[in-house]
Design a protein that fits this description.
Blueprint (H helix, E strand, L loop, with lengths): L2 H13 L2 H8 L3 H15 L4 E4 L2 E4 L1 H28 L5 E6 L2 H14 L4 E6 L2 H10 L4 E4 L8 E16 L9 E2 L8 E5 L4 H11 L6 E6 L5 H6 L5 E4 H5 L8 E6 L5 E9 L6 H11 L9 E2 L4 E2 L8
Parallel strand pairs: 3-4, 3-5, 7-11, 8-9
Antiparallel strand pairs: 1-2, 5-12, 6-10, 6-11, 6-12, 13-14
Helix pairs in contact: 1-2, 1-3, 1-4
Amino acid sequence: MDLLQLRYFQTVARYEHISRAADELHVAQPSLSRTIARLEAELGCPLFDRQGRRIRLNQYGAMFLRHVDRALSELDDGRRALRDARDTGLGRVGVASETLLTITHVLGSFRAAHPRADVRLFQATAQEMERRLRAGEVDFCVASQPLTGTNLESVELAREEVLLAVPRGHWLDGRESVTIPEIADEPFVTTRVGHWQRALLDRLFGSEGLVPTLSCEGDEPGASQDMISAGLGIGLIPAISRQAGTDSHVPVAWVHLDAADCHRVLTLVRNRDTYLSEAALKFREFITSRPFMTHRLPDPRRGRTTGPVPRQP
């Protein structure tokens, strides 16, 4: 058994697809299949269930994968530790976020404060963020929904109200608040399943026994406001977008949703078992020691939020 076999097995286990794994590893499919077969022969049991061209990780494979993930993660941490000790810089810090707007300003401020740090930013869904944390591809995730993977720990960074954005001239333009049943038939601009806006929309409608009507589903949350302004529907937008001034060129009207828990909680998530470079340690201190953004905390007396209310443009 060698490291190459373990790397190949880890990739095949992630995709449960030989050709996709081969493409990522830049090897021929027959060569990859033979490597997996030799590993299974050495271990004395199959790691995958095979049905034609389809493969599925079986109970033995899942058990072995947990140990392989830990072993390779330790080796990767060792390489990073040596690189950080050797280099003159602070090392690398990798951060993943569901939407880049949320983290851009903070990362810019961090780089200005620590120019020797090598900062890498990735955009990912919640599922992809969990995978990247487990694989050691990122040090932190700034998540807008809970990440529940093994050995993950989180710190709350901010809590803000989520507003309803509508096109100018819409019948809700000028309204202070609206209930979910009132907008049951309105078309929504939202993200695909896996993003926090979609999870929140489905939860809010589900609590009323309703299903939202979707006019647009996308992978870039930052584009939602443009599509709403263009009249393609209405949508849920976090208060940070209004406060960040993104509506200066994208005119929409803002309405409070009279619904329980209509807010977003941002957390900083890491895998407690992975090595943190000096750059990563400084980033954690930087982002947790100061206000992450101007946020709005829920007021339990009114089901509304405290703090300044965005004015109608």
